[in-house]
Automatic annotation (TrEMBL):
A single GO cellular-component term on record: membrane
Chief place where the protein resides: membrane
Membrane topology: Multi-pass membrane protein
Organism of derivation: Pieris macdunnoughi
Keyword terms of this UniProt record: Membrane, Transmembrane, Transmembrane helix
Protein name: Sugar phosphate transporter domain-containing protein
Superkingdom in the source lineage: Eukaryota
Sugar phosphate transporter domain residues: 9-294
Claim: Heme is one of the keywords in the record: no
Lineage: Eukaryota, Metazoa, Ecdysozoa, Arthropoda, Hexapoda
Length: 308
């Protein structure tokens, strides 16, 4: 009875995670369509994650970051998170959500390359096969994408590469300090927000003020969408940690790959972006490759990664 109840709880948490992640991406695209300022959207997301995590951390009694988790270790991680968030928003702004997420499926490719360059780590035959499947899927999706833009592709690839670097560095910090994942996420979001604020003031601060003065769009609607996007980004992160806390790393990796497929399907259904059959086939192949990679990789190294 208890096992059945736990299965139902995990299923509900996964469904909530998928729904929140899909809603976050769809709302994010709507925000950037009406309010074309990706740095502002990234800043709001980081601020929401940093601020909204405080009461949750207090409620669950999460311990503070250990003294071994010093600023010197957190700053590179925070910079990686800051850049990942910015490039992710630029990619969603420039290309359809479905294509941006398909390109971000190249994260394992970047992870394998960085692990080889930084740590000299070589991959098994099964991992290499999965990487080839991912590359083939992304190449097919790119070749058949109707709304292809070089800037969007570059931003999505940069986001995937930076997310891989963030995963590798986070794994090192978590293994060395045993920091609570959600506490670490809150600290990194706050530091990334501080790093982004000066860049935002110089590049978009004046443009946002001018946009409001000239009435180019509905400030009230854009503000509501922006607030919803920030809260949804935080909620989907909390849902991801809730799933990770209840399942094995391999099960989480499978659920994460399934989540990416759900986000792609939800964006196609809600935003109604045209997708030829070969484009859908490329997306499917890329997601399948991620699933194979996770299974091959995590069966050998069960340490979880920061999921956002």
């Amino acid at each position: 009875m208890r096992a059945r109840r736990e299965t139902l709880v995990i299923g509900a948490l996964c469904a909530t995670w998928y729904a929140l992640s899909s809603a976050s991406n769809v709302v994010g695209k709507l925000v950037l369509t009406e309010f074309p300022f990706p740095l502002t959207v990234a800043l709001v997301q980081l601020a929401a994650t940093a601020a909204c995590s405080v009461p949750v951390l207090a409620l669950c009694g999460a311990p503070p970051l250990p003294s071994s988790c010093r600023l010197r270790a957190l700053v590179p991680l925070a910079l990686a998170k800051f850049l990942t968030t910015v490039f992710s928003q630029v990619s969603i702004w420039k290309v359809p959500v479905s294509y941006a997420h398909t390109v971000k499926a190249t994260t394992p490719l970047w992870t394998a390359a960085l692990a080889w360059v930084i740590f000299g780590e070589r991959q098994s035959r099964s991992v290499q096969t999965a990487l080839v499947v991912i590359a083939a899927g992304v190449a097919l999706a790119s070749a058949t994408e109707l709304h292809f833009q070089t800037a969007g592709l570059a931003a999505a690839l940069a986001a995937a590469a930076l997310l891989s670097l963030q995963h590798l560095l986070t794994k090192r910090v978590m293994q060395g300090t045993r920091a609570h994942p959600l506490r670490l996420l809150q600290a990194l979001s706050a530091l990334a927000m501080l790093a982004l604020a000066p860049m935002w003031a110089l590049s978009e601060g004046g443009a946002v003020a001018s946009w409001r003065r000239t009435g180019e769009g509905s400030s009230a609607r854009a503000g509501a969408l922006l607030a919803a996007d920030g809260v949804l980004a935080w909620l989907q992160a909390v849902a991801a940690f809730s799933v990770l806390a209840r399942v094995t790393p391999l099960a989480y990796a499978v659920a994460s790959a399934a989540k990416r497929a759900v986000v792609v399907l939800a964006s196609l259904a809600v935003l109604r972006n045209p997708a030829p059959p070969l484009n859908v086939a490329g997306m499917t192949l890329a997601v399948l490759g991620v699933l194979l990679y996770n299974r091959a990789k995590l069966s050998r190294s069960p340490a979880p990664l920061l999921p956002v």
